[in-house]
Fold this sequence. Notes:
The chain is of the alpha/beta class.
Amino acid sequence: MWLEILAALVVVVMSVRFWYRYTSGHCTSTRSMAGKTVIITGATAGIGKETARDLLRRGARVIIACRNLEKGHKVAGELLSEGDGRGEVVVRRLDTSNLSSVRTFAKEVLDTEGAIHVLINNAGAPGMGKRLVTADGLELTMATNHFGHFLLTNLLLGRLKKSGPSRVVNVTSFVHKIPSKSDLKDLAITNDYKPFKAYNISKLCNVLFTRELADKMAGTGVTVNCLNPGIVRTEIFDAVNFNYRAFLIYILLQVTSKDAVSGAQTSIHLAVSEEVEGVTGRYFCDCKEAPMSDLARSKDMATELWEASVKAVGLRQDEIHY
C-alpha cells in the first residue's frame, strides 16, 4: 500500500513539475544584438548567467557586473568558449550592497562605454537570517536588491538616454504582492525583522521603482519594465538559513521550479523582443504582461519610495538625469 501511495505521489510531483515548465514562457524573438552594449548585474550564476549567454550568442557586448572578479572571468571564459565569436564579454566588479562600489562601477562604465542599450538589474540576495546593516547604514537585503540598483540606474540614465532607444529591465518576484502599505514606511526593516519580509519588501520596491522611473523617462526613448522570472532553482536559495520556511521553499522548489534557462526567458524577452518596443512601466511573467499588486500600482507610493531612495543613496544634483 505504501509503495502505491509513494508511486502516486511521485507521479503527481513529476506531472506538476512538467506542467509548470511546459507552460513557462519562452522568448521567441530572433533579434540580433550586434552592436548593442548590455549590462547585467549578478550575471555569474542563475538566470543572470543564462541571460548573458543568450545575449552573447546574439552578438551583444555583455558587461558582467559581479562581486567576485575571479568567478566573473571564469564565467566569461566559459561563455566565450561556447560562442561563435559574434559577441564580446567584459567583466567589471560591482557590489550592489555597497554604494561606493556602485559609484566606482558606474564611473568605469561611463569612462569606457560610449553607449548603453540595455541595463538588466538582476543581482539579488535573499533575506538574511538576522538583520545586517551595510557600511552605508542600509539594511543588507534592501541595499542589495533595491538601493544599489536605484543608484546604479540613476548614474547611468544620462548614457541610456543618449543611446536610445534603450531599455531598463528590473528582476522582481511574485512576492511583491505580499507586503502592506505599512511595510513601506520601514525601509530599514527595523520593526519585526524577518528574512522573507525583507526580501518581499525589496521586491515590491523593484516594481514601484520601475513604475516611477518609467513615468520620469516618458518620451526619452528609455523604456523600463520589470519581471517575475517564476520559481527558479538557483544559487540564491543556497544562502537561505535553514528553518521551517526554508524547508517549505525547498520542497516547493523540488515540485514546481524552472531551471535557470527557463527562468531567464522573460529577462531576455524584455531585453530584445520587438513586441515590447515602446512598452514601459509594466510587469511581466512568462514573457507576457501580468497584473501587479494594487499597492505596486500606487503612484503616491512610487513617488514616496523614489524620494526616500534619493535620500538613502545620497543622490547628488549632478547625478540626476530625469
